[in-house]
Design a protein that fits this description.
single chain, mainly alpha, Growth Hormone, Chain: A, 2 domains, two-stranded antiparallel sheet, 18 helices, globular
Length: 415
């Protein structure tokens, strides 16, 4: 069951983080503006955001297994619709459908991981699950690059998968072939889930979605809105960078989105994952607010280098943003939950809704980019990264993160 949860995390990430590499192809293939391309991310993350709280009600009402099957069916339907009928309008509907399914899965699998692996192993398994999630984010752009480069050729010696995909995919849209991979992966998960027995799960207080009264109580607290905005800003930073870097590298430096652009996005997610391990060490040494300030400063420096540096610097600086962004999500979430005394499950749902930042910020970047150039559009990330940085200045958690206590003298300990 733990293995099944890890595979689920892998497939979620595989479907979720491919938008950045395909944006240049969508713009050129369907002749759409930067704003229109940004609406693809909007469709996906608005579904992700609005489904975060309702997904909790669905899981409590119908239990995990049927809800997960339904979610993967949504992922299959969304991927298959675009694979069969590739077009901009179909893409909007497809991304919304996939986003809704993936949001439901995220809510369902965390309690399942806790019960299946044992509460005593939950922290370790959660960290390992994030590494699995990140590995799929690293691999997904490389699968896309492999398919595009190989489907352009006509060699008869290619493997069976490539030959099948060539027949299924329009010759002028080789990049769309990855949605057949997504559809197959999601459908395979439906079959696996159907034949899998699930344990009985009793949800903890933090996992329950909560009552409407709890949400009303939280909505009256200023700190709740501040942290919601921080989550909105962070997801906007993450998706704004990942979605537009390949397009930027093509427009300003003439780099191939199928190779260099896809590799940059892949390394962004790879460093975002690897940075979590570095962050775990830093959080055992320093106060989380100081780590957050340092991470934001590093991300802003890399953003500046990416936007205004030459090609050889830009292609390194964009992925490096992921290294610094890696600790932002867990720190903001932990500071948020440690800043309220009750209703943590409901507060988690509100924070999850902040994912809509990934819907709105890429559209803002695209809109500015249409009028003033993509460099100016991406400069909007200075505002979102700046707000995340501000959390390190105004956060006043009830409980601070535990750090290693160093021995100063016999019998005396200091932080």
């Amino acid at each position: 069951m733990v293995g099944l949860v890890f595979v689920t995390f892998f497939v979620i990430s595989l479907l979720t983080n491919i938008l950045g590499p395909v944006v240049p192809d969508i713009i050129s293939s369907f002749q759409v503006s930067l704003t229109a391309a940004g609406f693809l991310a909007f469709a996906f993350f608005i579904a992700y955001g609005v489904m975060s709280i309702p997904a909790g009600f669905l899981v409590e009402r119908f239990t995990e297994k049927p809800v997960m099957v339904l979610a993967f069916l949504a992922g299959t339907l969304g991927s298959l619709s675009f694979a069969l009928f590739p077009g901009y309008r179909v893409a909007i509907i497809s991304y919304f459908t996939i986003g809704a399914g993936m949001a439901v899965l995220q809510v369902a699998i965390n309690p399942l991981l806790r019960v299946a692996g044992g509460e005593e192993n939950y922290a370790f398994n959660s960290t390992l699950a994030q590494l699995v999630f990140g590995s799929a984010s690293f691999i997904s752009p490389r699968i896309y690059s492999y398919l595009v480069l190989n489907l352009k050729g006509t060699s008869d010696s290619q493997n069976l998968v490539l030959r099948i995909l060539r027949r299924l995919t329009p010759a002028d849209l080789p990049w769309a072939s990855i949605y057949w991979i997504f559809a197959f992966s999601a459908l395979l998960m439906v079959v696996i889930l159907f034949f899998t027995r699930f344990p009985r799960i009793l949800h903890t207080a933090d996992e329950r979605v909560g009552s409407l009264d709890m949400y009303r109580s939280l909505s009256r607290q200023r700190v709740v809105w501040l942290y919601f905005t921080a989550m909105f800003a962070y997801v906007g930073c993450e998706q704004g960078t990942a979605d537009w870097m390949s397009t930027f590298l093509r427009q300003y430096h003439g780099l191939d989105p199928h190779t260099t652009g896809a590799a940059a996005v892949s390394w962004f997610w790879g460093l975002l994952t690897a940075g979590c391990l570095v962050g775990m060490l830093l959080l055992k040494i320093f106060d989380s607010r100081r780590v957050l300030l340092g991470a934001c400063a590093g991300a802003l420096f890399c953003l500046s280098a990416a936007l205004f540096g030459p090609a050889k610097i830009s292609v390194i600086a964009f992925p490096a943003i992921g290294l610094f962004a890696s600790v932002m999500w867990p720190i903001v979430v932990s500071l948020a939950l440690n800043s309220v005394a009750e209703f943590h499950g409901s507060f988690s749902g509100i924070l999850g809704t902040g994912i809509i930042g990934g819907a709105i910020v890429p559209v803002i970047i695209g809109r500015i980019g249409d009028y003033a150039g993509l460099r100016s559009g991406l400069a909007f990330l200075y505002i979102t990264f700046g707000f995340v940085l501000s959390v390190g200045l105004w956060a006043k958690p009830i409980i601070s993160n535990a750090t290693i206590r160093l021995k100063k003298a016999p019998g005396e300990l200091v932080d």
